Here is the input.
Amino acid sequence: MSSRDPAAGRRSASFHGLAPDRLAAIERPQSHQELPRWLEVNGAVGQRLTKLLLNVTIERSLGPVHVVMPPENTVADLVRAAVDAYVKEGRRPLLPLADPKVFDLHYSQYSLESLNPEEKLINLGSRNFFLCSKPAKVAPGCLKDRAKETPVAAVTSR
Here is the structure.
C-alpha cells in the first residue's frame, strides 16, 4: 500500500512541486487553414457581419436588454428597438414614457456625452451601451422667476 494519496494523481504536477522541465510538453492544437477569414490577403472582405448582438442597460433597470440588429442601422434605431423590447418584456421599473425620442444612448453610465443618433452601429466600437432619459430642459427665465418668489427671510437664518 502506497503512502501517496490516490487523489494526488489527479492534481496538477505543479501542485506537487515538480519542475516544468520534468512535465510533458503540451501540444498545441493544429490550426485549420480552411476556416473562413474576415479579410483576404488583397484587402477584399471575405465575409461581412450580418447581425450584431447589442446589450443596452436602461437607467434604473436590473439587467441589459439584448437586441439583435444589422450593423447598418443607426443609434436612433437601436434606441427605438431597446425601448420597444423593454416595454414588450414588461420589465420593471416601468418607463415614464415609451417614446424613444426622450432617451439618449451613452457608452456607459459614467459617460456624459451621448452618442450621435445618426451614427452607424458598426462604427461605434462597442456592443454595450447605457440608455438614460434626456435631461429636462429648463426655460431661460424659469430660475430667475423662482428666485423672486422665495422671500429672503426664508432663505437666511437669524
